[in-house]
Write a structure and sequence with these properties.
six-stranded mixed β-sheet, Cyt_P450_B, binds protoporphyrin IX containing FE, three-stranded antiparallel β-sheet, alpha+beta, 17 helices, Cytochrome P450, Cyt_P450_sf, Cyt_P450_CS
Length: about 525
């Protein structure tokens, strides 16, 4: 950090703390804002104060009053992640770590401690590790994953559909990504409530976090050993067999990275997208008016509530300048999608929707840009879509003001999303969506395509799932076909609303695009 930054003091040096109610509350040595503790309950609000006071890059204090920069501007965040010649993700060059200001028990140590994973690697080593991860990801068949997401959604909805009530964070959003990721990496049999609890626990840093972390790591070690001995056609086997020659430890650490990164971020994305679809008048009106697809709602959520508010961290490799601030070699900088996405220079009107614009920071950028974004988006798109199709009358079961979030520097997590709906029967997870036995869905203006139901069936609107991808929406990322395709599913009964005739070209395209 620059010499202007205060020297580090301990967290319990109360003599330096102003009394509660004092305008300086929430500030630490040197009058710098703390990103933790009293005064930092509303981080979004704090980021706006910092932007006003310091511009697009602001000096702040982390726990133990460790100095840090938080990058608030959109362009400055982009510059940070896209300029590896100046900024690195390798924490071993961070001055407060080198000079002992960061203690081993620092609460952010799990993020700070350098690990031999692609997130922390640079240059050739980053290319080697990330290359293996992205090559293994390229073998994942998009359509079969989408089908799996759809079926997992049906399984989860079956658990609560007859009750007419559910809590969608705990009963849906926290489960779907774990079910999908366990399938993708090749341990579907390990997915259960305990695995979800363990991941949640390990990431929340509760008292049992270490035991939970061990539970997950043991499952990943068993998987690595099994696939090393007997490769299959899954992410783990491809990671092991990659020419990069990853060791067992490297394989296990990358499985952990993928499982946890995917789990934490996608739970937030699913919860936020569901909350938005259920409460935001812009989405309710637009979804019901047929102009807004679920993927567009998900994309808007990535702008307004990025699943990672900030990412710890980038480190300056040399003295430089960013956003008008003088950055010293060894300084740490928080990459910050949450304030970056609402930078008034790119979004003067926050209520304007961002349809068709994917320039948000939610997935990062540059060499470390999230390689799992297609899977993350697919889980949210298909999961939200299939849930709304299954429960078309779902609505929030509490006042919107009663929704609560837990906030940390890294993310903002919706605690609960209670909903109610008319009880529905269980559904065979292999069967495509059917509205035959369901109450009338919310009024939807059909898209101008041939979705005419069979003449004997009651006229129903198409499920939200059948909305078109917006014009210009790219096709899903190209995938490399698996050498041994998964066995064809059992023949599916024709749903009641399906026309008996062969689906037209558009329907076949939609089925291909949606993957189920
Ligand atoms: C919707 C959810 C997701 C969001 C918002 C998200 C966001 C991010 C962000 C912001 C980064 C860090 C970029 C940086 O260091 O500058 C990242 C890295 C990463 N993500 Fe994701 N992610 C999501 C889902 C996933 C999924 C589903 C996977 C795996 C299937 C995944 C795997 C990774 C990996 C391996 C990295 C490290 C890449 C590297 O350092 O080279 N993520 N993600």
């Amino acid at each position: 950090m620059t010499p202007e930054h205060p020297t580090t003091t301990g967290p319990h040096d109360l003599a330096l703390d102003p009394p509660p109610g004092c305008p300086a509350h929430g500030r630490g040595p040197g009058g710098l804002h703390r990103l933790y503790g009293p005064g930092a309950e509303d981080l979004d609000d704090l980021y706006e104060q910092l932007r006003e006071q310091h511009g697009p890059v602001a000096p702040v204090l982390l726990h133990d009053d460790v100095p840090m920069w938080v990058v608030l501007g959109h362009a400055e965040n982009m510059h940070l992640v896209r300029t590896p010649s100046q900024f690195s993700r390798d924490s071993r060059i961070w001055t407060p770590l080198l000079d002992g200001a960061v203690k081993p028990d620092h609460p952010l140590m799990p993020h700070i401690a350098w690990q031999p994973i692609c997130s922390h690697a640079e240059g050739d080593e980053h290319k080697r590790l990330r290359g293996a991860v992205t090559a293994a990801m390229a073998t994942i068949d998009d359509r079969s994953v989408r089908r799996y997401i759809y079926r997992s959604t049906q399984r989860l909805v079956n658990r609560f559909c007859e009750r007419g009530r559910a809590e969608l964070v705990g009963q849906f959003a926290e489960h779907l990504p774990m079910a999908v990721m366990c399938h993708v990496i090749g341990m579907p049999e390990e997915y259960d409530d305990r695995m979800v609890q363990a991941a949640r626990d390990a990431l929340k840093g509760t008292e049992t976090a270490i035991a939970s972390h061990t539970y997950v790591m043991e499952a990943l070690s068993r998987l690595t050993a099994r696939r090393r001995a007997d490769p299959q056609d899954d992410f783990t086997s491809h990671l092991i067999r990659d020419p990069a020659g990853l060791t067992d430890d490297e394989v296990r650490e990358h499985l952990r990275l993928v499982l946890f990164a995917a789990y934490e971020a996608t739970v937030n994305l699913l919860s936020n997208a569901l909350r938005m679809v259920l409460t935001d008048p812009r989405f309710l009106a637009q979804l019901n008016g047929g102009q807004m697809t679920v993927p567009e709602a998900v994309e808007q959520s990535l702008w307004d509530e990025p699943p990672f508010s900030t990412v710890f961290a980038y480190f300056a490799k040399q003295d430089t300048e960013l956003g008008g601030q003088r950055i010293r070699r060894g300084d740490g900088l928080l990459f910050a999608p949450a304030p970056g996405n609402v930078d008034p220079r790119i979004r003067p009107d926050l209520s304007a929707n961002m349809q068709g614009n994917r320039a948000h920071l939610a997935f990062g950028g540059g060499p470390h840009e999230c390689p799992g974004q297609d899977i993350g988006r697919a889980i949210a798109d298909v999961g939200v879509d299939a849930l709304l199709t299954r429960l078309p009358d779902v609505q929030l079961a509490c006042a919107e003001e009663d929704l609560r979030w837990t906030t940390s520097i890294a993310s903002r997590h919706l605690v609960e999303l209670p909903v109610r709906f008319e009880p529905k029967p269980q559904q065979d997870v292999m069967v495509r969506p059917t509205h035959g036995a369901l109450p009338p869905p919310r009024p939807v203006i059909p898209v101008s395509l041939d979705f005419t139901p069979a003449s004997t069936a009651a006229p129903v609107a198409p499920p939200l799932a059948t909305r078109l991808p917006p014009p210009g929406e790219p096709r899903p990322a190209a995938t490399v076909p698996r050498p041994a395709p998964e066995p064809a599913p059992a023949p599916e009964p024709t749903p009641a609303w399906e026309p008996a005739r062969r689906p037209n070209a558009w329907r076949r395209f939609l089925a291909w695009w949606r993957g189920y």
